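Q: Entry one of two.
A:
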Amino acid sequence: MVTVEYLVNKLQLEPHPEGGYFKETYRADLKSDFNGFEGERNVSTGIYFLLEQLDFSAFHKIQSDEMWHFYDGDTMEVHMIFDDGTHKVVKLGRDLEKGELLQFVVPAGVWFGSRVAKGGDFSLVGCTVAPGFDFKDFEMPTAEVLLERFPKQKGIIEEMTRK
Protein backbone atom coordinates (compact mmCIF):
# COMPACT_ATOMS: atom_id res chain seq x y z
CA MET A 1 0.00 0.00 0.00
CA VAL A 2 1.30 3.46 -0.94
CA THR A 3 1.69 5.81 2.03
CA VAL A 4 2.46 9.50 2.40
CA GLU A 5 5.80 8.65 4.01
CA TYR A 6 6.71 6.39 1.09
CA LEU A 7 5.84 9.08 -1.49
CA VAL A 8 7.66 11.86 0.41
CA ASN A 9 10.81 9.70 0.57
CA LYS A 10 10.64 8.12 -2.88
CA LEU A 11 9.83 11.37 -4.72
CA GLN A 12 12.14 13.46 -2.46
CA LEU A 13 9.33 15.88 -1.58
CA GLU A 14 9.88 18.92 0.64
CA PRO A 15 7.41 21.09 2.60
CA HIS A 16 5.74 23.75 0.44
CA PRO A 17 5.11 27.29 1.81
CA GLU A 18 1.38 27.09 0.91
CA GLY A 19 0.96 23.65 2.59
CA GLY A 20 1.68 20.05 1.60
CA TYR A 21 4.84 18.75 -0.04
CA PHE A 22 6.39 19.34 -3.45
CA LYS A 23 9.35 18.71 -5.72
CA GLU A 24 10.16 20.60 -8.86
CA THR A 25 10.53 18.01 -11.62
CA TYR A 26 10.94 20.25 -14.66
CA ARG A 27 12.13 23.75 -15.50
CA ALA A 28 12.45 24.50 -19.21
CA ASP A 29 15.85 25.77 -20.29
CA LEU A 30 14.13 28.07 -22.77
CA LYS A 31 13.37 31.51 -21.35
CA SER A 32 11.43 34.41 -22.77
CA ASP A 33 10.02 37.81 -21.93
CA PHE A 34 6.25 37.56 -21.53
CA ASN A 35 3.78 40.45 -21.51
CA GLY A 36 2.73 41.30 -17.96
CA PHE A 37 5.80 39.71 -16.33
CA GLU A 38 8.80 41.54 -14.94
CA GLY A 39 11.90 40.03 -16.51
CA GLU A 40 12.44 36.71 -18.25
CA ARG A 41 10.61 33.53 -17.23
CA ASN A 42 11.25 29.90 -18.08
CA VAL A 43 8.57 28.94 -20.58
CA SER A 44 7.29 26.09 -18.37
CA THR A 45 7.81 24.36 -15.02
CA GLY A 46 6.42 21.23 -13.39
CA ILE A 47 6.13 19.86 -9.86
CA TYR A 48 4.81 16.92 -7.88
CA PHE A 49 2.42 18.14 -5.16
CA LEU A 50 1.16 16.02 -2.25
CA LEU A 51 -1.47 16.90 0.34
CA GLU A 52 -2.60 14.93 3.37
CA GLN A 53 -6.11 15.01 4.88
CA LEU A 54 -5.80 17.61 7.66
CA ASP A 55 -3.64 19.92 5.55
CA PHE A 56 -4.49 22.28 2.72
CA SER A 57 -2.89 24.45 0.10
CA ALA A 58 -3.76 27.98 1.22
CA PHE A 59 -5.48 30.42 -1.12
CA HIS A 60 -2.94 32.06 -3.40
CA LYS A 61 -2.62 33.21 -6.97
CA ILE A 62 0.02 33.30 -9.65
CA GLN A 63 0.33 35.18 -12.94
CA SER A 64 0.34 32.03 -15.10
CA ASP A 65 -2.10 29.28 -15.99
CA GLU A 66 -1.55 26.20 -13.83
CA MET A 67 -2.52 22.77 -15.16
CA TRP A 68 -3.21 20.13 -12.51
CA HIS A 69 -2.75 16.41 -13.23
CA PHE A 70 -4.15 13.73 -10.88
CA TYR A 71 -1.74 10.87 -10.13
CA ASP A 72 -2.63 8.89 -7.02
CA GLY A 73 -4.58 8.75 -3.78
CA ASP A 74 -7.95 10.26 -3.04
CA THR A 75 -10.01 13.03 -4.61
CA MET A 76 -8.53 16.51 -4.40
CA GLU A 77 -10.69 19.61 -4.33
CA VAL A 78 -9.38 22.74 -6.03
CA HIS A 79 -11.24 25.81 -4.72
CA MET A 80 -11.16 28.97 -6.83
CA ILE A 81 -12.41 32.49 -6.20
CA PHE A 82 -12.80 34.59 -9.33
CA ASP A 83 -12.60 38.39 -9.56
CA ASP A 84 -16.41 38.65 -9.54
CA GLY A 85 -16.50 36.79 -6.17
CA THR A 86 -17.73 33.49 -7.60
CA HIS A 87 -16.48 30.39 -5.77
CA LYS A 88 -16.02 27.23 -7.82
CA VAL A 89 -14.78 23.78 -6.79
CA VAL A 90 -13.25 21.30 -9.21
CA LYS A 91 -12.60 17.73 -8.10
CA LEU A 92 -9.53 15.94 -9.38
CA GLY A 93 -9.58 12.15 -9.24
CA ARG A 94 -10.29 8.95 -11.11
CA ASP A 95 -14.06 8.70 -10.64
CA LEU A 96 -15.03 10.13 -14.01
CA GLU A 97 -18.65 9.01 -13.52
CA LYS A 98 -18.90 11.40 -10.54
CA GLY A 99 -17.49 14.28 -12.56
CA GLU A 100 -13.93 14.09 -11.30
CA LEU A 101 -11.26 15.22 -13.73
CA LEU A 102 -7.79 13.84 -14.42
CA GLN A 103 -6.59 17.28 -15.56
CA PHE A 104 -7.76 20.82 -15.00
CA VAL A 105 -6.37 24.32 -15.59
CA VAL A 106 -6.60 27.09 -13.00
CA PRO A 107 -6.56 30.31 -15.04
CA ALA A 108 -3.88 32.90 -14.38
CA GLY A 109 -4.78 35.47 -11.73
CA VAL A 110 -7.49 33.38 -10.00
CA TRP A 111 -7.27 32.89 -6.22
CA PHE A 112 -7.10 29.15 -5.50
CA GLY A 113 -6.31 26.58 -2.85
CA SER A 114 -6.73 22.84 -2.56
CA ARG A 115 -7.42 20.08 -0.09
CA VAL A 116 -8.11 16.37 0.06
CA ALA A 117 -11.85 15.63 -0.12
CA LYS A 118 -13.51 14.52 3.13
CA GLY A 119 -12.85 10.89 3.91
CA GLY A 120 -9.63 10.76 1.90
CA ASP A 121 -6.09 10.28 3.21
CA PHE A 122 -3.90 11.95 0.62
CA SER A 123 -3.76 13.23 -2.96
CA LEU A 124 -0.75 13.23 -5.26
CA VAL A 125 -0.95 15.55 -8.25
CA GLY A 126 1.33 17.27 -10.70
CA CYS A 127 1.21 20.95 -11.60
CA THR A 128 2.51 22.41 -14.84
CA VAL A 129 2.85 26.20 -15.04
CA ALA A 130 3.34 28.23 -18.22
CA PRO A 131 4.98 30.72 -18.31
CA GLY A 132 7.06 28.92 -15.68
CA PHE A 133 6.56 29.42 -11.96
CA ASP A 134 8.58 32.09 -10.20
CA PHE A 135 7.98 33.18 -6.60
CA LYS A 136 8.01 36.80 -7.88
CA ASP A 137 4.58 35.99 -9.40
CA PHE A 138 3.16 34.34 -6.24
CA GLU A 139 0.77 36.00 -3.76
CA MET A 140 -0.55 34.29 -0.60
CA PRO A 141 -2.72 36.76 1.36
CA THR A 142 -4.12 36.61 4.85
CA ALA A 143 -7.80 35.84 5.40
CA GLU A 144 -8.39 39.53 6.20
CA VAL A 145 -7.14 40.62 2.78
CA LEU A 146 -9.37 38.13 0.95
CA LEU A 147 -12.40 38.80 3.18
CA GLU A 148 -12.19 42.51 2.45
CA ARG A 149 -12.52 41.73 -1.24
CA PHE A 150 -14.79 38.64 -1.09
CA PRO A 151 -16.93 38.84 2.09
CA LYS A 152 -19.52 36.38 0.69
CA GLN A 153 -16.84 33.65 0.68
CA LYS A 154 -16.07 33.97 4.40
CA GLY A 155 -16.47 30.26 5.22
CA ILE A 156 -14.08 28.84 2.62
CA ILE A 157 -11.60 31.71 3.06
CA GLU A 158 -11.37 31.09 6.81
CA GLU A 159 -10.95 27.35 6.21
CA MET A 160 -8.20 27.73 3.63
CA THR A 161 -5.90 30.60 4.63
CA ARG A 162 -2.88 30.58 6.95
CA LYS A 163 -2.77 32.68 10.07
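Q: Entry two of two.
A:
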Amino acid sequence: MAKNVTRVKGDKVRFGVIGLGVMGREHCAGFSAIAEARLAAVCDGFGDSARKVGETHGVPYFTDHRALIASGLCDAVLIATPHPVRPPIALDVMNAGIHLLSEKPLAECVSAADLMIKTARRKKVALGIMFQRRASPPVLKALEWVRSGALGAVCRATLIAPEFRPQAYYNSGAWRGTWKGEGGGVMINQAPHWLDLFILFGGMPSEVFGRCSTRLHQMETEDVAEALLTYPDGGSGYFYATTNEPGSGNMLEVFGTKGKLCYRDDSLTLQRFSESVTDFSARTELPFSKPDCLVEAPFQSSETGGHVNIIRNFARHLLHNEPLLSPGEEGLKSLELANAVWLSAHLKKPVKLPLNRKAYDRFLAAKRG
Protein backbone atom coordinates (compact mmCIF):
# COMPACT_ATOMS: atom_id res chain seq x y z
CA MET A 1 0.00 0.00 0.00
CA ALA A 2 1.31 3.43 -0.90
CA LYS A 3 2.33 5.60 2.03
CA ASN A 4 0.70 9.01 2.48
CA VAL A 5 -2.21 8.12 0.22
CA THR A 6 -4.20 11.17 -0.78
CA ARG A 7 -7.49 11.00 1.12
CA VAL A 8 -10.93 11.75 -0.30
CA LYS A 9 -12.80 14.69 1.22
CA GLY A 10 -16.50 14.55 2.02
CA ASP A 11 -18.69 11.70 3.22
CA LYS A 12 -18.85 9.57 0.05
CA VAL A 13 -16.31 8.27 -2.43
CA ARG A 14 -17.38 8.76 -6.06
CA PHE A 15 -16.73 5.52 -7.94
CA GLY A 16 -16.52 4.82 -11.64
CA VAL A 17 -16.85 1.25 -12.90
CA ILE A 18 -14.90 0.27 -16.00
CA GLY A 19 -15.94 -3.03 -17.60
CA LEU A 20 -19.65 -3.84 -17.55
CA GLY A 21 -19.78 -7.58 -17.97
CA VAL A 22 -21.41 -9.82 -15.37
CA MET A 23 -19.16 -8.71 -12.49
CA GLY A 24 -19.13 -5.05 -13.50
CA ARG A 25 -22.92 -4.90 -13.53
CA GLU A 26 -23.07 -6.67 -10.17
CA HIS A 27 -20.67 -4.12 -8.68
CA CYS A 28 -22.77 -1.25 -10.03
CA ALA A 29 -25.87 -2.65 -8.35
CA GLY A 30 -24.03 -3.06 -5.05
CA PHE A 31 -23.34 0.63 -4.47
CA SER A 32 -26.89 1.21 -3.23
CA ALA A 33 -25.97 -0.79 -0.10
CA ILE A 34 -22.81 1.21 0.69
CA ALA A 35 -23.26 4.40 2.71
CA GLU A 36 -19.67 5.53 2.16
CA ALA A 37 -19.70 5.33 -1.65
CA ARG A 38 -21.82 6.10 -4.67
CA LEU A 39 -21.72 5.14 -8.32
CA ALA A 40 -20.73 8.23 -10.31
CA ALA A 41 -19.98 6.95 -13.83
CA VAL A 42 -19.63 3.77 -15.89
CA CYS A 43 -17.60 2.76 -18.94
CA ASP A 44 -17.52 -0.11 -21.39
CA GLY A 45 -16.07 -0.48 -24.88
CA PHE A 46 -19.45 -1.75 -26.08
CA GLY A 47 -21.63 1.32 -26.42
CA ASP A 48 -24.95 -0.46 -25.84
CA SER A 49 -23.70 -1.94 -22.57
CA ALA A 50 -22.41 1.41 -21.37
CA ARG A 51 -25.64 3.19 -22.26
CA LYS A 52 -27.94 0.57 -20.69
CA VAL A 53 -26.03 0.42 -17.40
CA GLY A 54 -25.63 4.20 -17.25
CA GLU A 55 -29.34 4.75 -17.84
CA THR A 56 -30.29 2.03 -15.34
CA HIS A 57 -28.32 3.74 -12.57
CA GLY A 58 -28.83 7.32 -13.72
CA VAL A 59 -25.14 8.11 -14.14
CA PRO A 60 -22.99 9.36 -17.07
CA TYR A 61 -21.62 6.62 -19.30
CA PHE A 62 -18.51 6.43 -21.47
CA THR A 63 -17.11 4.09 -24.12
CA ASP A 64 -13.48 5.14 -23.60
CA HIS A 65 -11.90 4.83 -20.15
CA ARG A 66 -9.75 7.89 -20.85
CA ALA A 67 -12.89 10.00 -21.20
CA LEU A 68 -14.17 8.75 -17.84
CA ILE A 69 -10.81 9.58 -16.25
CA ALA A 70 -10.79 13.07 -17.75
CA SER A 71 -14.39 13.77 -16.68
CA GLY A 72 -13.44 14.59 -13.09
CA LEU A 73 -16.47 12.64 -11.88
CA CYS A 74 -14.56 9.94 -9.99
CA ASP A 75 -12.38 9.74 -6.89
CA ALA A 76 -11.86 6.01 -7.43
CA VAL A 77 -12.35 3.43 -10.15
CA LEU A 78 -13.39 -0.19 -9.86
CA ILE A 79 -12.03 -2.04 -12.88
CA ALA A 80 -13.78 -5.26 -13.94
CA THR A 81 -12.52 -5.73 -17.49
CA PRO A 82 -10.96 -9.04 -18.58
CA HIS A 83 -7.62 -9.27 -16.78
CA PRO A 84 -5.25 -9.25 -19.80
CA VAL A 85 -6.44 -5.73 -20.73
CA ARG A 86 -6.59 -4.55 -17.13
CA PRO A 87 -3.02 -3.26 -16.53
CA PRO A 88 -2.90 -0.51 -19.22
CA ILE A 89 -6.26 0.85 -18.07
CA ALA A 90 -5.20 0.61 -14.43
CA LEU A 91 -2.01 2.56 -15.15
CA ASP A 92 -4.00 5.31 -16.90
CA VAL A 93 -6.32 5.54 -13.89
CA MET A 94 -3.55 5.72 -11.29
CA ASN A 95 -1.33 8.05 -13.31
CA ALA A 96 -4.26 10.46 -13.25
CA GLY A 97 -4.21 10.36 -9.44
CA ILE A 98 -7.38 8.27 -9.16
CA HIS A 99 -7.58 5.43 -6.63
CA LEU A 100 -8.03 1.92 -8.02
CA LEU A 101 -9.89 -1.17 -6.85
CA SER A 102 -9.24 -4.08 -9.23
CA GLU A 103 -11.09 -7.30 -9.79
CA LYS A 104 -8.91 -10.36 -9.36
CA PRO A 105 -6.34 -11.08 -10.65
CA LEU A 106 -4.39 -7.84 -10.96
CA ALA A 107 -2.95 -9.03 -14.27
CA GLU A 108 -2.04 -12.22 -16.08
CA CYS A 109 1.67 -11.95 -15.27
CA VAL A 110 3.54 -10.77 -12.22
CA SER A 111 5.70 -8.25 -14.11
CA ALA A 112 2.57 -6.29 -15.09
CA ALA A 113 1.31 -6.42 -11.50
CA ASP A 114 4.69 -5.13 -10.28
CA LEU A 115 4.27 -2.05 -12.45
CA MET A 116 0.76 -1.44 -11.12
CA ILE A 117 2.01 -1.53 -7.53
CA LYS A 118 4.95 0.74 -8.27
CA THR A 119 2.64 3.23 -9.97
CA ALA A 120 0.27 3.27 -6.98
CA ARG A 121 3.17 4.06 -4.67
CA ARG A 122 4.58 6.74 -6.94
CA LYS A 123 1.24 8.49 -7.43
CA LYS A 124 0.21 8.06 -3.76
CA VAL A 125 -3.07 6.39 -4.64
CA ALA A 126 -4.73 3.43 -2.99
CA LEU A 127 -4.66 0.11 -4.83
CA GLY A 128 -6.96 -2.70 -3.71
CA ILE A 129 -7.98 -6.07 -5.11
CA MET A 130 -11.36 -7.79 -4.97
CA PHE A 131 -10.64 -10.75 -2.70
CA GLN A 132 -14.07 -10.71 -1.07
CA ARG A 133 -13.53 -13.93 0.88
CA ARG A 134 -11.24 -11.94 3.15
CA ALA A 135 -14.33 -10.21 4.52
CA SER A 136 -16.12 -13.44 5.55
CA PRO A 137 -16.41 -14.19 9.30
CA PRO A 138 -14.50 -17.53 9.18
CA VAL A 139 -11.60 -15.95 7.30
CA LEU A 140 -11.42 -12.98 9.66
CA LYS A 141 -11.38 -15.36 12.64
CA ALA A 142 -8.74 -17.59 11.06
CA LEU A 143 -6.58 -14.57 10.34
CA GLU A 144 -6.92 -13.48 13.97
CA TRP A 145 -5.67 -16.89 15.09
CA VAL A 146 -2.78 -16.92 12.62
CA ARG A 147 -1.64 -13.42 13.58
CA SER A 148 -1.79 -14.31 17.28
CA GLY A 149 0.87 -16.99 16.70
CA ALA A 150 -1.52 -19.86 17.48
CA LEU A 151 0.00 -22.07 14.75
CA GLY A 152 3.70 -21.52 15.40
CA ALA A 153 6.12 -22.32 12.59
CA VAL A 154 4.45 -23.82 9.51
CA CYS A 155 5.24 -27.51 9.04
CA ARG A 156 2.66 -28.39 6.40
CA ALA A 157 0.10 -26.49 4.33
CA THR A 158 -2.48 -28.15 2.08
CA LEU A 159 -5.07 -26.70 -0.29
CA ILE A 160 -7.68 -28.59 -2.31
CA ALA A 161 -9.73 -26.23 -4.50
CA PRO A 162 -12.24 -28.08 -6.70
CA GLU A 163 -14.56 -26.25 -9.07
CA PHE A 164 -16.60 -27.46 -12.03
CA ARG A 165 -17.13 -25.88 -15.43
CA PRO A 166 -18.75 -27.75 -18.35
CA GLN A 167 -17.39 -27.49 -21.87
CA ALA A 168 -20.20 -25.03 -22.59
CA TYR A 169 -18.53 -22.55 -20.24
CA TYR A 170 -15.36 -22.51 -22.33
CA ASN A 171 -17.38 -22.48 -25.55
CA SER A 172 -19.29 -19.38 -24.40
CA GLY A 173 -16.40 -17.05 -25.18
CA ALA A 174 -13.51 -17.45 -27.61
CA TRP A 175 -11.18 -15.90 -25.02
CA ARG A 176 -11.94 -18.46 -22.30
CA GLY A 177 -9.27 -21.04 -21.59
CA THR A 178 -6.80 -19.48 -24.03
CA TRP A 179 -3.32 -18.07 -23.50
CA LYS A 180 -4.06 -14.89 -25.43
CA GLY A 181 -7.49 -14.31 -23.92
CA GLU A 182 -6.87 -15.31 -20.29
CA GLY A 183 -3.19 -16.03 -19.86
CA GLY A 184 -4.04 -19.29 -18.12
CA GLY A 185 -6.88 -21.54 -16.99
CA VAL A 186 -8.00 -22.58 -13.52
CA MET A 187 -4.97 -20.92 -11.93
CA ILE A 188 -5.79 -17.45 -13.27
CA ASN A 189 -9.59 -17.59 -13.23
CA GLN A 190 -11.14 -19.86 -10.59
CA ALA A 191 -8.35 -20.51 -8.06
CA PRO A 192 -7.06 -17.01 -7.11
CA HIS A 193 -9.42 -16.57 -4.13
CA TRP A 194 -8.31 -19.84 -2.58
CA LEU A 195 -4.65 -19.26 -3.40
CA ASP A 196 -4.96 -15.90 -1.65
CA LEU A 197 -6.27 -17.53 1.55
CA PHE A 198 -3.68 -20.31 1.27
CA ILE A 199 -0.89 -17.72 1.33
CA LEU A 200 -2.67 -15.54 3.90
CA PHE A 201 -2.81 -18.40 6.41
CA GLY A 202 0.34 -20.35 5.57
CA GLY A 203 2.71 -17.77 4.12
CA MET A 204 4.58 -17.59 0.82
CA PRO A 205 6.64 -20.63 -0.22
CA SER A 206 10.26 -20.29 -1.28
CA GLU A 207 10.23 -23.03 -3.94
CA VAL A 208 7.56 -24.45 -6.26
CA PHE A 209 7.46 -27.68 -8.24
CA GLY A 210 4.34 -27.52 -10.42
CA ARG A 211 2.40 -29.66 -12.83
CA CYS A 212 -0.41 -28.49 -15.11
CA SER A 213 -2.62 -30.54 -17.40
CA THR A 214 -5.81 -30.46 -19.47
CA ARG A 215 -7.84 -33.58 -18.71
CA LEU A 216 -11.54 -32.93 -19.32
CA HIS A 217 -12.00 -29.90 -21.55
CA GLN A 218 -11.10 -28.82 -25.06
CA MET A 219 -9.05 -25.72 -24.25
CA GLU A 220 -5.50 -24.38 -24.59
CA THR A 221 -4.79 -23.82 -20.92
CA GLU A 222 -4.98 -26.05 -17.86
CA ASP A 223 -8.05 -27.43 -16.08
CA VAL A 224 -5.85 -29.10 -13.44
CA ALA A 225 -2.95 -27.50 -11.59
CA GLU A 226 -1.01 -28.88 -8.65
CA ALA A 227 2.26 -28.15 -6.92
CA LEU A 228 4.64 -29.31 -4.23
CA LEU A 229 5.85 -26.37 -2.14
CA THR A 230 8.80 -25.70 0.16
CA TYR A 231 8.61 -22.96 2.80
CA PRO A 232 11.46 -20.78 4.07
CA ASP A 233 11.49 -22.45 7.51
CA GLY A 234 11.64 -25.95 6.00
CA GLY A 235 7.92 -26.67 5.97
CA SER A 236 6.26 -28.36 3.01
CA GLY A 237 3.00 -27.85 1.16
CA TYR A 238 0.74 -29.11 -1.58
CA PHE A 239 -2.18 -27.70 -3.50
CA TYR A 240 -4.56 -28.98 -6.16
CA ALA A 241 -6.97 -26.85 -8.18
CA THR A 242 -9.33 -27.99 -10.93
CA THR A 243 -12.46 -27.14 -12.91
CA ASN A 244 -13.28 -30.84 -13.37
CA GLU A 245 -14.77 -31.69 -9.97
CA PRO A 246 -18.42 -31.00 -9.04
CA GLY A 247 -19.74 -31.00 -5.49
CA SER A 248 -18.27 -29.66 -2.27
CA GLY A 249 -14.75 -30.34 -1.08
CA ASN A 250 -12.81 -27.09 -0.66
CA MET A 251 -10.22 -27.69 2.03
CA LEU A 252 -7.39 -25.59 3.43
CA GLU A 253 -5.21 -26.88 6.28
CA VAL A 254 -2.16 -25.39 7.93
CA PHE A 255 -0.30 -27.47 10.51
CA GLY A 256 2.24 -25.67 12.66
CA THR A 257 4.37 -26.49 15.68
CA LYS A 258 1.71 -25.09 18.04
CA GLY A 259 -1.58 -25.92 16.34
CA LYS A 260 -3.56 -26.92 13.27
CA LEU A 261 -6.05 -24.78 11.32
CA CYS A 262 -8.68 -26.40 9.12
CA TYR A 263 -11.06 -24.46 6.85
CA ARG A 264 -13.39 -26.80 4.99
CA ASP A 265 -16.50 -25.70 3.09
CA ASP A 266 -16.79 -22.52 5.21
CA SER A 267 -16.43 -24.46 8.48
CA LEU A 268 -13.42 -23.40 10.56
CA THR A 269 -11.67 -25.21 13.42
CA LEU A 270 -8.43 -24.69 15.33
CA GLN A 271 -6.61 -27.39 17.28
CA ARG A 272 -4.28 -25.93 19.91
CA PHE A 273 -1.50 -28.17 21.23
CA SER A 274 -0.74 -28.05 24.95
CA GLU A 275 2.89 -27.38 24.03
CA SER A 276 4.79 -27.16 20.78
CA VAL A 277 5.46 -30.46 19.04
CA THR A 278 9.19 -29.72 19.06
CA ASP A 279 9.30 -29.16 22.82
CA PHE A 280 7.01 -32.11 23.61
CA SER A 281 8.93 -34.52 21.39
CA ALA A 282 12.22 -33.59 23.06
CA ARG A 283 10.79 -33.75 26.60
CA THR A 284 8.57 -36.80 26.80
CA GLU A 285 9.88 -40.23 27.78
CA LEU A 286 6.68 -42.06 26.77
CA PRO A 287 7.08 -43.64 23.34
CA PHE A 288 3.44 -43.29 22.22
CA SER A 289 2.47 -40.04 23.90
CA LYS A 290 1.43 -36.83 22.19
CA PRO A 291 0.55 -33.30 23.29
CA ASP A 292 -2.95 -32.66 24.54
CA CYS A 293 -5.10 -31.03 21.89
CA LEU A 294 -7.77 -28.43 22.62
CA VAL A 295 -10.23 -27.97 19.77
CA GLU A 296 -11.66 -24.47 19.51
CA ALA A 297 -15.46 -24.44 19.10
CA PRO A 298 -16.09 -25.00 15.38
CA PHE A 299 -16.78 -21.74 13.59
CA GLN A 300 -19.23 -22.05 10.73
CA SER A 301 -20.88 -19.39 8.61
CA SER A 302 -22.74 -19.34 5.32
CA GLU A 303 -21.56 -15.76 4.72
CA THR A 304 -18.71 -15.73 2.20
CA GLY A 305 -17.90 -12.03 2.45
CA GLY A 306 -19.51 -10.32 -0.48
CA HIS A 307 -18.09 -7.76 -2.87
CA VAL A 308 -19.80 -4.83 -1.17
CA ASN A 309 -17.72 -5.43 1.96
CA ILE A 310 -14.50 -4.90 0.03
CA ILE A 311 -15.87 -1.81 -1.72
CA ARG A 312 -17.09 -0.40 1.61
CA ASN A 313 -13.70 -1.06 3.23
CA PHE A 314 -11.90 0.58 0.30
CA ALA A 315 -14.13 3.66 0.60
CA ARG A 316 -13.60 3.85 4.37
CA HIS A 317 -9.87 3.58 3.77
CA LEU A 318 -10.00 6.65 1.54
CA LEU A 319 -12.31 8.58 3.88
CA HIS A 320 -11.17 7.49 7.34
CA ASN A 321 -7.87 5.66 6.86
CA GLU A 322 -9.40 2.29 7.78
CA PRO A 323 -6.83 -0.47 7.04
CA LEU A 324 -7.43 -2.23 3.74
CA LEU A 325 -8.73 -5.79 4.00
CA SER A 326 -7.33 -6.60 0.58
CA PRO A 327 -4.44 -4.34 -0.52
CA GLY A 328 -3.05 -4.63 -4.03
CA GLU A 329 0.28 -6.01 -2.87
CA GLU A 330 -1.57 -9.08 -1.61
CA GLY A 331 -2.86 -9.72 -5.11
CA LEU A 332 0.72 -9.99 -6.28
CA LYS A 333 1.37 -13.04 -4.09
CA SER A 334 -1.28 -15.41 -5.44
CA LEU A 335 -0.45 -14.33 -9.00
CA GLU A 336 3.25 -14.97 -8.42
CA LEU A 337 2.50 -18.44 -7.06
CA ALA A 338 0.31 -19.22 -10.09
CA ASN A 339 2.96 -17.96 -12.52
CA ALA A 340 5.58 -20.04 -10.71
CA VAL A 341 3.51 -23.21 -11.08
CA TRP A 342 3.14 -22.70 -14.83
CA LEU A 343 6.84 -21.94 -15.31
CA SER A 344 7.87 -24.94 -13.22
CA ALA A 345 5.50 -27.22 -15.14
CA HIS A 346 7.00 -25.95 -18.41
CA LEU A 347 10.59 -26.39 -17.25
CA LYS A 348 9.79 -29.71 -15.51
CA LYS A 349 11.80 -28.67 -12.48
CA PRO A 350 11.35 -26.59 -9.29
CA VAL A 351 11.59 -22.81 -9.47
CA LYS A 352 12.60 -20.44 -6.71
CA LEU A 353 10.59 -17.51 -5.39
CA PRO A 354 10.68 -14.56 -5.89
CA LEU A 355 9.91 -15.59 -9.46
CA ASN A 356 12.20 -14.64 -12.32
CA ARG A 357 9.95 -12.15 -14.10
CA LYS A 358 11.79 -12.22 -17.41
CA ALA A 359 11.72 -16.01 -17.55
CA TYR A 360 7.97 -16.06 -17.04
CA ASP A 361 7.36 -13.30 -19.59
CA ARG A 362 9.31 -15.31 -22.17
CA PHE A 363 7.24 -18.41 -21.35
CA LEU A 364 3.94 -16.53 -21.69
CA ALA A 365 5.01 -14.85 -24.95
CA ALA A 366 5.91 -18.25 -26.41
CA LYS A 367 2.54 -19.68 -25.37
CA ARG A 368 0.76 -16.82 -27.06
CA GLY A 369 2.75 -17.26 -30.23
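A: Comment on entry two: The longest helix spans residues 328-347. The chain has twelve helices and 16 strands.
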